[in-house]
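ARCHIVE ENTRY
Sequence with per-residue tokens
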Amino acid sequence: MSLPSFEKARVLVVGDVMLDRYWFGDVSRISPEAPVPVLKVERVDERPGGAANVARNIAALGAQATLLSVVGDDEAGACLEKLLTSHGRVEALLHRDSSISTIIKLRAIARHQQLLRIDFETPPSHEVLRAKLADFHARLAQADVVVLSDYGKGGLAHIAEMIRTARAAGKPVLVDPKGDDYARYRGATLLTPNRGEFREVAGGWKSEVELSAKAHKLCTELQLDALLVTRSEEGMTLYRDNEVLHEPTQSREVFDVSGAGDTVIATLAVMLASGAELPDAMRIANRAAGIVVGKLGTAVVSREEILADMNR
């Protein structure tokens, strides 16, 4: 298959954003205060995380992303906005909520190994979320595809209304789900849980036949067009209309899986917004995931990298 042009694709992304902050350094001794390693920090790196990483991946592919989310009125929120606006194809509409702190995931890394992760987070206020919903209604008409990136941090309190509104407007809605209450995603076009997330909702399975039955049952119950289960080393499987399509993992070294789900849903959205059919979108998303897990931390994949991978 050939890769469509992504330049005119427009994706509206709504969800929980966070600042991924990395402390890189070296460990040469154990603390005298407690039996823990002492990290001497040599470099600090900051990257957009969560729904912001989805938007960044969309932009890296050459498409246009509009991001709606909530941040604190603080240094981390300003840093996140600056990181996003440095990508020319991301329009970041970040509502400031002075009652919360911007979500930060702080990772300490030595010799390519993560020693520790520290999370800072508080849920946004109802008033700010309602203002974000108004922005959603205003921006919906300009989008080809809607992505709802749920990290379970409280930023998608109105997700059911967003799905209904978008589907009524004829827009495909892709949801990266969280938690065990999938009823709130009813009516979405596509859900993209990973293997562990799907097991949490549907229970375990002992065969592909049983997995397929559970997937199709969920599609029927929630009135979904399709379900895509990403399965790590087993690849990814698409379930729809009594059809099962499987795409095996591309054989390569896995360096870091953090943010891979963001890359998958971003690539799916851009492909669909560019006129591709869902099976082709899945194949390209699978390639993109294979590329991004070879990179450290939350990372992006370009259209050129995908083309090079297709030709290797």
